[in-house]
Amino acid sequence: MTGLLLAHAFFQTFLSARHDAAGVERFRQVLETANDISAERAPSNIVMGGETALLRSRLQAARARTDRALAREAGIVPAKPLQETATLLGRARALVDQAAAQPVPRREAIQQAIEAQFAAYDGYRAVITAEAALLMRTDSGLAAPVQFALILCTLRDDGGRLGSVVVPALITHEAVSERDISARDRLAGRMAIQWELLDLGANLTDRGPGLFALRANAEAAFFGDGQPLVARVIEEGTHAERYTESIETFNDRYVRTLAPLEIWRNSFLDGLLSHYRQRERHAFELLWVVSAVMLAVVGLIAGMVLLVHMRVLRPLLQASEAVVGLVHDRPVTLPFRHHGGRELQPLFEALAILRDKLQERAVQTRHLKHLAETDELTQLLNRRALETLAESVMEAETPEKQVFLILLDIDHFKAINDRYGHGEGDRVLVAVAGALRAQIRPGDLVARVGGEEFAVLVRTRHLIDALSLAHRLHQAVGDLDVRNADAGRIAVTASFGLAAGKGLTWRQFMAKADVALYAAKRAGRNTVRVAGADGAGPEHAA
User: Fold this and answer.
1) Rounded-to-10 torsion of CA 311, 314, 317, 323
2) In principle, which of 6, 117, 214, 381 could form an S-S bond with 264, CB 3.0–4.6 Å?
3) Where in this chain does the record put each GGDEF domain (predicted)?
């Protein structure tokens, strides 16, 4: 058993390693798509500065590369943020094309197009964040590498945004604005912080061959060439001098300073993926070794396991099933005989005793429940049982199934007792109960709620349906043929009060029906009255 558990553990380790490797590969793909979205800004900026067939061709190639990347993500990443990214990207492209089509580019149109491109990338951040969170939840050991990769990705995008700060001024040959300078300072400060965060993961830098050298190249290219290039353009634009760089030459030079960042990031992710692929292969090899050993061990002990199963485990499983069945009050069909050792016989004998005792207790419980909920004389529900059941019925009320309460009181019942005796009075109560029970539908509730008072709770669509039932009950009580000891007929009538229960508590419901009942009594008894919104109104006296 221990060996099987060990093999299972190695199998789970292999599955975990495979899952992690697949997750890292998917994460790398998502970051590549993010880079494609970011990289599309460079040819877009150049085209807005002056469109030619060659520049348009480069832009179309960049857009096609981005579209292929997004299409590749379909079905792999969440659909909603992917669709939102595509929508934002389409809007950005339209603004770029509009700005490029202007004979004299307007700075506002260029700035608007650039910001729309930023928004498209920001929309894709939801996909990046979701994939990163999934990886870190799957394997806590991936938290640091994933965060490192995210910083590299953000650093590359912020670098591109930093270059875009001066694009409107270069295209329109206007001075650099205070807004542009503030944006440059903000982005430069953020990138400095990101670079410091990368220093915290210095051990990650050495994870792959040459990563430390790639880091040095990226630092030298961007901080040594890229940022100074932007600073020089801003300096020229601030003093309203003539720009020494065209948008095209600036873009080409600046993109080259960002390339080492991309190379560093891709090499880091390749090394990370290689590490997890190696883990997967190692786990697979260990799984095969352990499985081979376990097959040999299982072959040797198979006979012993079978014997133990037949003599011990199988009887215990039968006993376990019997206990579960008894706990859930199900009939236990398993035979209480077994083929195990004699030591298990007392267990099965105890189960037989437990079964008999539980059956006896169940019978007693059902009997006590019946006594607690049933009126002893009429065998109808008693008042407490009706209240309990009525609450659930009222909670389930719908416009199609409204709840109505009919209260009825036997007219002059004290006179019946005084004239014929309590025994005959009890016979009248039983007869009335039988008449009520014969008229109601399955699902309706009828109860004795007092000495000679009964209640019928019904669910129906309209008041007229409940009123019709009240009249049928009234007629059934009036038609009773109850004979006294001298074979004389005891005249039995009842007064009825009907109320609707919409929006009421049970206490209010009873009080409303009681008002209608007493209205029937005041009207001379032997009639039906319906409770109105604020009292009882006359309704079809019988």
Assistant:
1) -70
2) 214
3) 401-533
How many CA atoms are closer than 13 Å to the CA of 527, on its beta-carbon side? 18
- Which residue range is the domain that position 361 belongs to? 342-372
CB atoms within 10 A of CB 97: 16
Residue 482: left if φ>0, alpha if ψ -120 to 50, beta else—which one?
A: beta
The count of domains in the chain is: 3
Per DSSP (E only), the strands in 331-487 are 402-410, 445-448, 453-460, 482-483
Q: Which CATH number characterizes residue 459's domain?
A: 3.30.70.270
Beta strand pairing call for 445-448 and 453-460: antiparallel
Residue 304 belongs to some domain of the structure:
no
- Give the residues across from 496 on adjacent strands: 408, 528
Sign of the Cα pseudo-torsion (122, 124, 129, 135, in order): negative
Residues 358 and 395 in one domain: no
- pLDDT digit string, tens, across residues 98-107: 988 888 889 9
Tell me, yes or no, whether 26 lies in a domain. yes
pLDDT tens track for 219-275: 888 899 989 999 999 988 887 668 888 899 999 999 999 999 888 888 888 888 888
- 209 and 349 in a single domain? The answer is no
